[in-house]
Structure prediction request, 142 residues.
Amino acid sequence: MGEDRQGRSACLIGLKGGGVLTDNFGVPVRPHVYTPMSSIHIKHHHSLEQHETHDRVERVAEYLKKKYKVKYTWKGEQLSSKHKGAHVHVNLTDGCVELKIQLGVLFSPLKGRIERAIRKNLHSVIGDEEGAPAKITLHEKL
Prediction:
């Protein structure tokens, strides 16, 4: 239920003649346009032990918390974070870091750049199946 401009109670009753969406007063209405959020899904394989992977991801999360005020929580080996324009879920398993990121409307045009930066940072922080770097280096430029 909603109200029209005169304060009368109204509800959408669907399509009437010609495929026009109208309210119960017969006034045409524009349907809400749903824009799905862009998503990034990355599986990064590596050779680190589980506890070392957790420690490295924790250090990156702490860095992002200090620099961008990103809040995050851990549930077991899953990190979740919500920030302006992005929802991030990181799942740590043996030999793999899996990231699922939902980008809001403002970050959607930057999806490609964001994904490249994440992949570059995963390689420099976690390493790959052939080994991990001794020092963590973050690359901030998109």
